[in-house]
From TrEMBL, chain A:
Protein name: NitT/TauT family transport system substrate-binding protein
A Pfam family the protein falls into: NMT1_2
Residue ranges that the Swiss-Prot or TrEMBL entry lists as coiled coil: none
Automatic annotation (TrEMBL), chain B:
This protein's name: Uncharacterized protein involved in response to NO
Keyword Cytoplasm on entry: no
Keywords, ordered alphabetically: Membrane, Transmembrane, Transmembrane helix
Transmembrane segments: 21-42, 62-80, 92-113, 119-137, 149-167, 187-206, 274-297, 309-328, 340-358, 365-387
Organism of this sequence: Marinobacter oulmenensis
Length: 334, 403
């Protein structure tokens, strides 16, 4: 075998491997269309605004925004290369990474979306200790709202089943309906679903008690009242193919987060256009959500502390271990 | 020319008797009145309003929809019982216009002075009361004074509702929801009193039509006990809502109603629409009272449990029964319900089952199966009523008699 032939075979093998990868979708995306995904709610508003950014428009002419409803759907889209970039809860991002999906975390931008609503008739709700003897509803067992709630309950010296009753529903909508039907004393809900429930309870002339779980976390742990709950991930091959484009997106996301917090009325209008939730739901949800864009590498210490605390309750939550350095977008790009 | 138009309007069949315009308006308004409430709960649209949407909803169902049905019933039944001249033509048109003004103002209540909204709505009830009081005072009407007293209390309850809305500080410890619950209880008492007047004729007719003969009697004392227990519950629910004693009284009232209807002819006779509708209304009354009793005694269920069985169930069935039966009887037709009405009745039963049971048993589907779906069935029930009865209500009597 002469060197020329060897080089040719190497090249052929390399081409075959490349061809078998879904990379071409993403490469094509950066020169043409970029597919971005987000769950319903404020992450969707942030990414929609980022995609309207003039810099993004100039760098990536064709863009699309999709909704993902379950992490499995997102995983499939990422694995097939149908989506290059997505907003996700941080635990879903860690889980995808630990299960071998080639992604990197670009940033964390949602630092407080969890809270509780309490029926006024069930007594005051100013601290999780008030929940003793109560019936609490939570959407999805083992998800972030559940684990944050259980962490806080444990910190407060309470025990589920011994001191309080917890029932799980299969979606936030079901929890909202149970709360509105007054079949729960309190409900753990993220925004904007929490505001939707609060407004619906208001139709019945009720003013539900509100408890911010981030503040409870700060009170019970002595740490800050901000939790790195959601951010944006992208496919690793997108990063490798066009780091400058990602840099443009990262900056645009930062501007979009600032825009949502500084222009809540306009952001609410955009949210209502994008989703079935009404404008007043977003108007209530925005001031109740902590939003700050922090590049992933800077957020790493807080993210690791947060994920470690929750993984103690359920290791599966993050896919068995903390993600390694490869999970975080390198500083050079951020 | 204008006078001719007016005179042809007031002399048209629709204004020949009180039930005609008010039954039609009640049926049209029954689903319409729910739109802002269901729309708000499902986050579809919001009607601006200066009072809690649930209070708006309760008012429009009890003083709008039921108010029209009650007006149609009293303006027809009272002259029929007492032989007193009925309200027809121009006077009837005037009552209809006040009722319509009340509805328009309640829909616009965020944009007009609330006192005006309350005044016009109260004016309708007072005008209705003034229209029937002379008949109750006549020789033939005196035997039915209790119904007249019921109407007077209904007007007082409406006044208290406006007090709780406009000057809540004057009514400490009582919310507009409490007033609405008490109004439903009052309507239950009025249903029980009306049933006492007609059940013998209805039961005998049902037995006769079913080919049954032989002795049949209803015990007056048991009837009176049932009505007395309802009145006692209504009073307890005003002064001690949610209290355990009220809970026991609710259960006792349910037992007294069960005792009362146990005397009614069951079996084949129950297929007759008159009797079936009365019984259905009573079944919902018992279910509602039991649920209210359990709620008051155990606090295991939310405070509203059972209230829809009493309002949409017992009152709603009684309203549809009156709309159907009086709509046949007073238009000179045999007592055979149009076929679509059986579907309407089934739709009403489904509405109440969903509205009552979903929040208790499947609260996770509350807004969809407990609010949206019952609305669809309620809409269907009244659309079918309009389909089945609009011709009867808008045309002259089939037997050529006046009215």
């Amino acid at each position: 075998m002469n060197p020329d032939r060897r080089d040719f075979l190497k090249l052929a093998a390399g081409a075959a491997v490349l061809a078998s990868l879904p990379l071409q979708h993403c490469l094509a995306a950066m020169t043409g269309k970029l597919s971005v995904a987000a769950p319903l709610g404020l992450p969707q508003v942030i990414l929609a605004r980022a995609l309207q950014d003039p810099d993004v428009n100039a760098r990536i002419p064709e863009r699309e925004l999709r909704n993902w409803r379950t992490p499995d759907q997102l995983r499939a889209w990422l694995a097939r290369g149908e989506v290059g970039l997505s907003a996700t809860p941080t635990n879903v991002a860690a889980n995808l990474y630990n299960r071998g999906v080639p992604i990197v975390l670009m940033n964390v931008n949602i630092w407080g979306t969890l809270g509780m609503l309490g029926l006024p008739a069930s007594g005051p709700l100013t601290a999780v200790e008030n929940l003793a003897g109560k019936h609490i509803g939570i959407p999805w067992r083992g998800d972030m709202p559940d684990l944050v709630f259980r962490f806080l309950i444990r910190k407060a010296g309470l025990e589920v089943d011994r001191d309080l009753r917890v029932t799980y529903q299969s979606s936030p909508l079901e929890t909202v309906q149970m709360f509105v039907a007054q079949r729960l004393d309190a409900a753990v809900l993220p925004e904007p679903v929490r505001t939707a429930a609060r407004l619906q309870a208001g139709q019945f002339g009720q003013k539900p008690e509100e408890l911010d779980l981030q503040e409870e976390w700060g009170r019970l742990t002595g740490q800050g009242a901000a939790l790195p709950q959601a951010g944006v991930i992208c496919r690793r091959d997108l990063l490798e193919a066009d780091p400058q484009a990602l840099e443009v997106m990262q900056s645009a996301i930062g501007r979009a987060v600032s825009w949502v917090t500084s222009e809540p009325a306009k952001a609410a209008t955009l949210g209502a256009e994008l989703s079935p939730l009404a404008e007043n739901v977003y108007q209530g949800a925005i001031p109740r959500t902590q939003m700050v864009m922090m590049p992933a590498s800077k957020a790493r210490p807080e993210l690791e502390a947060f994920l470690t605390a929750l993984a103690e309750l359920s290791p599966d939550f993050i896919g068995g271990r903390l993600p390694d350095t490869g999970f975080y977008l390198p500083d050079a790009v951020s | 020319m204008q006078m001719n138009t007016e005179s042809s309007l007031v002399s048209s069949p629709i204004f020949a008797y009180g039930f005609r315009p008010f039954f039609l308006l009640a049926a049209i308004y029954a689903p319409l009145a729910l739109l802002p409430w269901v729309g708000a709960l499902l986050q579809l649209f919001t009607l601006p309003m200066p009072l809690p949407p649930i209070a708006w909803h309760g008012h429009e169902m009890l003083f709008g929809f039921v108010g029209a049905a009650l007006a149609g019933f009293l303006l027809t039944a009272v002259p029929s019982w007492s032989g007193y001249e009925p309200v027809t033509g121009g006077r009837l048109l005037a009552l209809v216009l006040i009722w319509l003004a009340g509805r328009v103002l309640f829909w616009l209540c965020a944009a007009v002075p609330p006192v005006l909204v309350a005044a016009v709505n109260l004016l309708f009830s007072l005008a209705l009361l003034a229209s029937v009081v002379p008949a109750f005072c006549s020789e033939g009407g005196r035997a039915h004074t209790s119904i007249g007293v019921g109407l007077a209390v209904y007007v007082v309850m409406q006044g208290i509702f406006y007090l709780s809305w406009l000057w809540p500080e004057r009514l400490p410890g009582m919310t507009s929801i409490d007033v609405l619950n008490s109004t439903v209880n009052l309507l239950l008492v009025m249903i029980a009193l009306t049933v006492s007047r007609i059940v013998r004729v209805v039961a005998m007719a049902a037995r006769h039509e079913s080919g049954l003969c032989g002795p049949f009697r209803l015990t007056v004392a048991r009837e009176r006990l049932a009505v007395f227990m309802l009145v006692l519950f209504a009073i307890a629910d005003v002064f001690a809502p949610g209290h355990a004693v009220t809970g026991w009284i609710a259960l006792a009232a349910a037992a007294a109603q069960a005792d009362r209807i146990s005397e009614w002819p069951w079996g084949r006779s129950m297929k007759r629409p008159y009797l079936l509708l009365l019984t259905l209304s009573y079944v919902w009354m018992m279910v509602g009272l039991v649920l209210v009793g359990i709620t008051d005694l155990t606090a295991l269920l939310p405070g509203y449990t059972g209230r829809h069985a009493l309002s949409a169930g017992a009152v709603g069935t009684a309203v549809l029964a009156v709309l159907c039966i009086a709509g046949l009887r007073h238009t000179g037709r045999p007592l055979r319900l149009p076929r679509v009405i059986w579907i309407a009745l089934a739709a009403l039963v489904v509405t109440v089952i969903l509205r009552t049971l979903v929040p208790m048993l499947w609260p996770e589907y509350y807004l969809l199966a407990g609010v949206a779906l019952p609305f669809v069935f309620w809409l269907l029930a009244y659309l079918l009523y309009i389909v089945g009865y609009n011709h009867y209500l808008l045309s002259v009597r089939a037997d050529g008699k006046p009215g």
